[in-house]
Amino acid sequence: MISRSMIPFTRRWVVKIGSALLTRDGAGLERSMLVPWVEQITARRMAGNEVVLVSSGAVAEGMARMGWRARPKALHALQAAAAIGQMGLVRAYEDCFQARGLHTAQVLLTRDDLADRARYLNARSTLRTLLKLGVIPVINENDTVATDELRFGDNDTLAALVANLIQADLLILLTDQDGLFDRDPRAHADACLIPETRVDDPQLDRVAGGSVTGLGTGGMVTKVRAARLAARSGTPTVIAPGRGEDVLRRIGEGEGVGTLLVPFQGPQAARKQWLAGHLQVRGRLTLDAGAVNALREKGTSLLAVGVKEVQGAFNRGEVVACVDVSGREVARGLVNYDVQEVARIKGHPSSRFEAILGYLDEEELIHRDNLVLL
Ligand SMILES: Nc1ncnc2c1ncn2[C@@H]1O[C@H](COP(=O)(O)OP(=O)(O)O)[C@@H](O)[C@H]1O
Ligand SMILES: N[C@@H](CCC(=O)OP(=O)(O)O)C(=O)O
């Protein structure tokens, strides 16, 4: 079970900054407010963390640019506001990060992108590549195309699903309060901060209220829900004061800032449950003894070179069972190539993929992050 003292050993972070923090009560994006976070994120990168930023603020900035005082009710007007405001948002981040020698990348996602297996893997590979390149991905919901059914609805949920996607070690939700209180501190002056709690504590449903600012969308309800979603990949969450001095460094050093929401199980157990529970097995790969050994003893990814046979009908992103030569299931995971492709590349090293297929999507057949041993 994670505790504050383990946070200094976490590497991959998703940091979410809410609208309530980025704008001064509806006056549009406040660039000067961005600077401290950009400086802190830059410092975390230098300290060895990989950081993915999820930033709200597009609607608030769009409203300010259009001179609208109230958040529009009609979806098309909200979408227009987001499209207008997103320009200012990414420009502000790009300028600020570039001044500190870091590149940024805009990533806009809809719920559908993460529900579809192949798109899920594509989004995951892109984000992993960006992190490897040392770039800071700046993610927001793709509000322009997201219809009601397709929406994440709030960026707390989006940030949690991104944490699942890249198997983040920590999710940090920066907001305008000091953390999660036992009651809404805007309405109750005597509300007390909760320093740490388990995400499955049923009391949390009672304490978390909605948003009253009219700029943000979710309030604490969506933050608690997000922490529960993040816990599905074993990721702990810290709800923290975005305006606090040096807040990311202090969290990173294990200080008791904000509220730590502890998941009920570790990453490997969480991944196992997710793979076992949600997805149907579409095919079967028979592995040679060397591959079985590498998976079991070294926890490596599965490479095509160790695959002897392939059966079933599966597409990229679907679940396949990995069996040994006696037919006993050893592992299960999300496969990076479809059945026809696997039939051609099995037994070959990844360096041959380009010659055989004409392209190389991924070096691994199943990446170890998407593989559970049975
Ligand atoms: N138990 C609680 N503890 C802290 N804040 C709460 C609580 N219940 C409701 N809130 C409200 O949640 C708001 C933060 O959510 P929101 O406005 O959606 O911000 P953000 O833009 O950061 O997502 C706070 O300003 C506060 O009024
Ligand atoms: N995509 C929207 C996100 C709105 C939203 O969730 O805001 P918040 O509750 O402040 O995180 C935007 O950029 O305005």
UniProtKB/TrEMBL annotation:
Enzyme class: transferase
Keywords attached to this entry: Amino-acid biosynthesis, ATP-binding, Cytoplasm, Kinase, Nucleotide-binding, Proline biosynthesis, Transferase
Entry GO MF terms: ATP binding; glutamate 5-kinase activity; RNA binding
Gene Ontology terms: biological process: L-proline biosynthetic process
Domain of life: Bacteria
Localisation per UniProt entry: Cytoplasm
Cited CDD domains: AAK_G5K_ProB, PUA_G5K
Domain PUA as annotated: residue spans: 283-366
Residues binding substrate, per UniProt: S56, D143, N155
Record: residues binding ATP: K16, T175, D176, T217, G218, G219, M220, V221, T222, K223
EC number: 2.7.2.11
Reaction(s) the record says it catalyses: L-glutamate + ATP = L-glutamyl 5-phosphate + ADP
CC annotations in GO: cytosol
Pathway: Amino-acid biosynthesis; L-proline biosynthesis; L-glutamate 5-semialdehyde from L-glutamate: step 1/2
A Pfam family per the record: AA_kinase
Main function: Catalyzes the transfer of a phosphate group to glutamate to form L-glutamate 5-phosphate.
Matching NCBIfam families: proB (TIGR01027)
Family: Belongs to the glutamate 5-kinase family.
Listed name of the protein: Glutamate 5-kinase
Lineage, opening ranks: Bacteria, Pseudomonadati, Pseudomonadota, Gammaproteobacteria, Chromatiales
Gene assigned in the entry: proB
